Amino acid sequence: MKTQVSFFLTILLVGMMSCQKDDKSAANAGIHFTKNEKVSDVIVSYDEIVGYDSTRYIFQVTPTAWNRLKKEISPSYPDPHFAFGVALHQQLIYSAKYVPGYYSSSQRDVITFLLVEPDLIYLKLGYPSSPGLFTGEDSRNDSRLIGQLKKDDKLTEIGN
After folding, report:
1. Which of 1, 39, 65, 98 gives 61 a disulfide partner, CB atoms 3.0 to 4.6 angstroms apart?
2. pLDDT by residue (tens digit) across 52-83?
3. Average pLDDT of 93-122?
4. What separation in angstroms does the CA of 91 have from each of 18, 19, 40, 48, 122?
């Protein structure tokens, strides 16, 4: 009987020591950017979002996060199919698509983004950017996103 209790306690202790904190759940909390709309594939966590200018539609992120996005677009050459999702608590709110400047076809129904060094992400309507001709849904200032940013004092005026 004593051997069984010792064995059970040993197994229990080993099991408890092997538990690890789930870092993905922390990355998925708050607003985060996901790779190609896959909510579980976080490429920019909420901690890496420095601020958002809701009048100019600009995210400011850490330089590390900015470089990660840049590498996702251009691992060796620009990927015209790259997009990232803007999600809140693992719920996709909208996606922003990368459209290279040399693209010849217009896209009036997508939110596009432009990376500006060293740490800014400009969100635009359509390609080429023409808000008057945009036919999609403008979710850049979704009330859920703005509420979270306001609550955490990340709504800011970004000069540049």
Report:
1. 65
2. 999 999 999 999 999 999 888 876 566 667 88
3. 86
4. 30, 27, 10, 18, 22
48 three-class SS? helix
Cα angle value 158/143/112 (rounded, 5°): 60
How buried is 149 (Cβ within 10 angstroms: 0-12 exposed, 13-18 middle, 19+ buried)?
buried
**∠ CA 24-114-130, rounded to 5°:** 125
Strand ranges of the sheet holding 120-127, from the earlier edge strand across to the other edge = 42-44, 31-35, 83-88, 91-98, 107-116, 120-127, 58-61, 49-53
